[in-house]
Amino acid sequence: MTLFVNGSPVPLPDDPRVSLLDLLRERLHLSGTKKGCNQGACGACTVLVDGERILSCLALAVQYAGRSVTTIEGLTEGEALHPLQAAFVAHDAFQCGYCTPGQICSAIGMVAELRRGSPSNVTQSLTAPAGLTRDELRERMSGNLCRCGAHNGIVDAILDVYGEVAA
User: Domains of the chain, with CATH numbers?
Assistant: First the structure.
């Protein structure tokens, strides 16, 4: 059995206890996805599975047989950065950069949730489309921590790329 990482088939590990994070980092040498807390509290390990954001430190690789995993490395097209990656650079949305891959993957997944009409805790109406306001964005991204304090740049970068998004 396999899973697909950034478009390439990858055999599942023989040991069913291997986390998706360890498969990505230790076996596939995709070091963009970070091991922060290893408890699902910081978001540094966020990747996309079939377009939905997950915490790879809490996921077993075998759970994702046949599914498509996208890491920060899989967002670029050749040498061209994903528009959100470019916006992070333009808005100085990082200092140390440790949380940046998880922030970017989480933001892409967050926008997909918003487009599907999934409400957050601060969404005003459960029936009307939610716009991507600063409050809505901060709530939806609250599972991704930045210890350097680059939150304003992160919010600005996401709004720069996805500010017109509504469910």
Answer: 2-75 (3.10.20.30), 83-162 (1.10.150.120)
